[in-house]
Amino acid sequence: MIILKGASVSTGIAIGKAKIIEKEVLQITRKSIKDHEIETEIEKFEKSVSHVLNDIDLLIKDLAQSKDHADILTTHKMILIDPEFTSKIKRSISEELMSMEHAISEHFNEIVDIFNNMKDDFFSQRSSDYEDVAYRLLSHILDKSTDRFGNLDENSVLIMEDISPSSVTKVFAKNICGLCTEKGSKNAHSSIIARSMNLPMLVAVHGLLENVKENDNIIIDGNAGKIVISPDKKTIGKYSKILEQQKKEIHKLKKILNIKAETSDGKKIKLMSNIEIPEEIDQVIKNRSEGIGLFRTEFLFMDADEFPTEEQQYQIYRKITERCAPEPVVIRTIDVGGDKLSKLLNIGHELNPNLGCRGIRISLEYVSVFKTQIKAILRANTKGNVKMMFPMISCVSEVLKAKKIIEECKSELKEQNISFNPAIGIGAMIEIPSAAITSDDIAKECDFLSIGTNDLVQYTLAVDRDNETVSDYYQPSHLSVLRLIKMTIENAHSHNIKVAVCGEMASEKKYIQLLIGLGIDELSVSPGRLLVIKNEILQIDSGKAEELAGKIFSALEGEK
Ligand code: PEP
Ligand code: MG
């Protein structure tokens, strides 16, 4: 029995047999063409592109019920109709006398290499989209219509180096029970699709292909982020029971879809969603989320060669906020820093990016970027349900500076006669200990607070949230963290404003009673966790939760 760890894309258990799908490499010969063949080669290229575009349109129609997939396929269409792409291929054909397949393959290989070398999750995710488009186009040109996945069934756990978005759709249609890849990342499009289909999936499993053989018994534990290869009888027995239980729970959870989240004694807890990319909105709506408590907007800035314009941002924000209305949407302003933004902003190399130019610090440094985003948010508030939130606030003066810039943006929009809704809630994330300690001052200046426990734990306990080797030190229930959460809640309430937890702590069942006991008003969780957390809330008595929180504090204080 071998156990390997990976990043869990979606929760859930899969038990089945390994089906290893080797990476398909299309053989492209470095063929040259003759001068007189240029015209026909360009014509063939244009026809191939339009054929593949037609195929994608048909797929989009077939997938009418799934917006996630349709959006991703639309992205693939955009790659194909990009004038830079078409003119580059035509140039390679006419000036360098390359065959179209050679030109296409070279073009996409270059892009994929660039993305892969960026060592940045957001960029490497994009490479699989380009690989996918290249595969579609080249397999059409080379007439490779065979199904590389062959016979798969509900007992198959797919083992691959990596998987493209279109392949996830294909294998899902074959009813497989799970998927595991050696490469990949949680936010790749293929992962988003798998998550939206509730397909148990792990990515970034180092040593996967080396350790799995065809038809090995496999267990994917999406809850714990691990894969068990050739499990012993006892382990199979244990997981079979969990799987049974899981099926029953999924069935049960559907029954609470239309019930509002409140404790057994009637305390209302607003239960919202965190989203990282707009495609997640479908899950938010499907699971009847009471709005979006955290819309991370980083994807806009990290997946682009240029800053997104006000109009581009406005269109994206408006689409999300109008779909959610009348429920609130909390749009968090740009929260990237360190290496991640070096392509767009000149931050330079930082020794400690997490302690460097991050979050609100970037916005206050690059005011014009900040203003563009603020204006787009103000304009997107067409239904009056938008709130704006600042990340990485360390003290009230940063909130005041940001609010001043919002006022400037409002005046500028007015001067330009551009319509916007000035009534917008302003909030601060409490994710740095100094912010929690001074949350009294911050609360005075805000309409709401939201506790980002992911960073709060990291900064309070001085433990890197992404470093596996120190993960034992990463303790959300550490007395120091709990005191900061309690202090923040009390300060928010003393100024009559609500406070949410939007860090991952809110997505974990085991902390819900404690958070309610501490007096939290709202929770914002990943959309796939909504029903699980709602179910937990329904079973909690808020009075008992408060008592329990008191006992936990006494016990932890006694431990000192
Ligand atoms: C947090 O820090 O808890 C949070 C929600 O923000 P992010 O995870 O995006 O840093
Ligand atoms: Mg954070």
Protein model, in words:
With about 550 residues, the protein is α/β, with parallel strands linked by helices. The model has no long low-confidence stretch (mean pLDDT about 90). It has helices at about 40-60, 65-80, 85-95, 100-115, 120-140, 165-175, 190-195, 210, 235-255, 280-285, 300, 310-325, 360-365, 365-380, 395-415, 435, 440-445, 455-460, 480-495, 510-515, 530-540, 540-560; strands spanning about 1-5, 5-10, 15-20, 155-160, 180, 200-205, 215-220, 225-230, 270-275, 290-295, 330, 385-390, 425-430, 450, 500, 520-525. An 8-stranded mixed sheet has the order 1-8-7-3-4-5-6-2. An 8-stranded parallel barrel has the order 9-10-11-12-13-14-15-16, surrounded by 5 helices. The site of magnesium ion has 5 residues, from α18. The site of magnesium ion (MG) has 5 residues, from α18.
